[in-house]
Design brief:
The complex is a heterodimer of chains A (115) and B (111). Chain A has 115 residues and is mostly beta strands. Chain A has no helices and eleven strands. With 111 residues, chain B is mainly beta. In chain B, strands 2, 4, 5, 9, 10 and 11 form a six-stranded mixed sheet that branches. Chain B has a five-stranded antiparallel sheet with strand order 1-3-8-7-6, with no helix packed on it. The chains are: A mainly beta (115), B mainly beta (111). At the A-B interface, β4, β5 and β10 of A face β4, β5, β9 and β10 of B.
Chain lengths: 115, 111
């Protein structure tokens, strides 16, 4: 069964450094997302991406965050200057359609630790 | 008020029993409802989705939706220890793709 793949599985970085989290969504999916989950807390929406542009973003997704689909397969989340509170599990997800009619397929996540 | 609220856990049931997980949502315009299961340290995986009022069954799982009451539930029949996980209710209510998740209910099925 096709799956969403994320790399790396664990990223440790120092506060103030830039990180790029990478994802390869399922090939025939059209919608791509980033969610995050701080340890012990709920899954939080960050951003959705469709047709090479952001379709919706949350309050969390401020100017420190950006997303890109640099080629036909990869989908990246960049955090420009990491803060301690950015430490979380970051999940990439993809779907065939919008949240109105399509479930999310999640990758295994990247655990980001900011020290 | 939380956008998506789930019954506080943890919930513990004996093996073979029915586990009942509940979820309410605040946006009356919400159109799609999903149940995901998340094992500790893992990513959410879809169990069921439901769009119309009523019941939807898939094996041991039944999702129930009541839009008038803004309520969705998940019943797990013949619960197994392998069902022990956190169950996440998610609501899809925008065309842009955002799903809003509840805090989750942790279920433990005791052998």
């Amino acid at each position: 069964e096709p799956e969403v793949t994320q790399t790396p599985s664990h990223q440790v970085t120092q506060m103030g450094q830039e990180v790029i989290l990478r994802c390869v969504p399922i090939s025939n999916h059209l919608y791509f997302y980033w969610y995050r989950q701080i340890l012990g807390q709920k899954v939080e929406f960050l951003v959705s991406f469709y047709n090479n542009e952001i379709s919706e973003k949350s309050e969390i997704f401020d100017d420190q965050f950006s997303v890109e689909r640099p080629d036909g397969s990869n989908f990246t989340l960049k955090i420009r200057s990491t803060k301690l509170e950015d430490s979380a599990m970051y999940f990439c997800a993809s779907s065939t359609g919008t949240a109105i009619n399509s479930p999310l397929h999640f990758g295994n996540g990247t655990r980001l630790t900011v020290t | 008020q939380k956008e998506v609220e789930q019954n506080s856990g943890p919930l513990s049931v004996p093996e073979g029993a029915i586990a009942s997980l509940n979820c309410t949502y605040s946006d009356r315009g919400s159109q799609s409802f999903f149940w995901y299961r998340q094992y500790s340290g893992k990513s959410p995986e879809l169990i069921m989705f439901i769009y119309s009022n009523g019941d939807k069954e898939d094996g041991r799982f039944t999702a129930q939706l009541n839009k008038a009451s803004q309520y969705v539930s998940l019943l797990i029949r013949d619960s197994q220890p392998s069902d022990s996980a956190t169950y996440l209710c998610a609501v899809g209510n925008t065309n842009a793709g955002k799903s809003t998740f509840g805090d989750g209910t942790t279920l433990t099925v005791k052998p």
